[in-house]
Known about the structure:
It is a single chain. It is rod-shaped, with a radius of gyration of 35 Å. It is mainly alpha-helical. Strand 2 and strand 3 (112-119) form a beta hairpin. A three-stranded antiparallel β-sheet has the order 1-3-2. The longest helix has 54 residues, at 122-175. The N and C termini lie far apart (100 Å). The protein is built from six helices and three strands, in the order αβαααββαα.
Amino acid sequence: MRLRDYLEVARERLVVVVAVVVLTMVSVVGLLLLQKPDYAASVRLRARPPAPGSQASDIVASQQFQTDLGTEAELVRSSQVAALVAQTLNIPGDPDNLLKRVSVVFIPDTAIMIISATDPQERGAVAMANTFANKYLEFRRRSLGETLDAESKVQTQLLRDRLSRLQALDKVIATSTEGSAQHGAAQAERDQQIADLVGIRSRLDAIA
C-alpha cells in the first residue's frame, strides 16, 4: 500500500472513533437528563433524658433509660419507627424500604442527632425527615410512659404498705407503756415509715 492509502484508512478509522465518542457522550448526557435528582432534608434533635438531678431523671435512670447514643440512632432507623412513618405518610410496600433513605449521625462530643432523608421530591424529603423525627419521639415517649406507669404501680403499692404499717404501729404505741422498749421501738419504726412515705410521695409526684 502507498502512503496515500494508509492516510485514507487512518482518516476513515478516525471518523469512526469520533462518531463512537460523540454517541457515547450523547447517551451519558441523555441518561443524566432523564434521571431525577434526589433531594435531602435534615432535622436536629437532642437525645437526652430529663435534666440531671431531677426526680424524674432519677426514676428514668433507675429503669435503665440512660441515653446511649448508638442505641438511639438504631431506634430512629428501627422497623417500628419506619412502620409508623409509612402509615403516617401513606407509603405502600415494605416500611423497611424507607430505611434505605434515612441516615442518623451525631455531632461529635454532643448529644445532638441529625436525622437526614432523601426523596426525588423536595417536599417528600422534608416530610420524610420530619416524620421520622416525630415518630421516633413518639415511640420514645410511649416507651418511657410504659416504664413510668410500671414504676407508678410499684410506688403506689409501697405507699399502701407503709400506710398499713403506720396504722399497726399507731396501735402499738397507743397500747404500750411510754418509755418501754416496745413503745420506743414502735416509735422509732414509725418515724422511719413516715420518712419513707415522704420519699415515695415525692417519686409519685415526679412521675405525675
